[in-house]
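Sequence only, no structure available. Ideas?
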Amino acid sequence: MTAKTSVVIGCDEAAWELKETLKAYIKGLGHEVEDMGTNEGVAVLYPDVALAAAEAIRSGRHARGVLLCGTGIGMAMTANKVPGVRAAQAHDTYSAERARKSNDAQIVTIGARVVGAELAKMIVRSFLESDFEGGRSLPKVERMEQIERMAQVERMAQVERMAQVERMAQVERMAQVERMARIKRMARQA
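Reply:
I predicted one. C-alpha cells follow.
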C-alpha cells in the first residue's frame, strides 16, 4: 500500500506497550491511526478489542488493522469471525507480505510475547506496503468468501430451525395448559 491510509490498532494488556510503539511508528509512516485500546495495561477481553477493530474494517472506516496480544493467535481467531474480514497472524515480514499479496488480509496480528518492537515495526511496514496481487490468488480468496457465505447461510438456517423448535414447544406448552384446564373443569363438574 503505497498510498497513505487509515489504520485501526488495538491490543490487550499484554501488548499495550508494543501498541504504543507501533501506533507512533505507523503515524510516522504517514498513516492515520485509530486506537481501540487498551491503554496502560488495563485488563480487557481481547475478543472485544478484535471485534471492534474488525467491525471498523468491515464497515469501511479503516482499510487496514493491526491487532496485538500475547501471541497474536486469539486476536486473529476473533477478527476472522467477523464476516468479510481476513486477519492473519505474522511473526515475520514474509508472512505479513504474503498475507496481503496472496490472501488479501486486512488485519495483521502480532504477538507481543513472541516478537520484539523492531521486528514488529518491520512486520507492520511490510504488511502496510503490500497490496493484493490477485492473479493466481484471486480464485482462492473468492473461494474463501464463498465458504464464508455458505457458513452464514447455514447459521441462518440453524437459527430458523431453533426458532421453529421453540414455536413448536410453545404450541405444545399451550396445549398442555389447555389440557390441564380442561381436566380441572371436569374435576369440578364431577
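The chain has two domains: 6-133, 134-190.
Hope that gets you unstuck.
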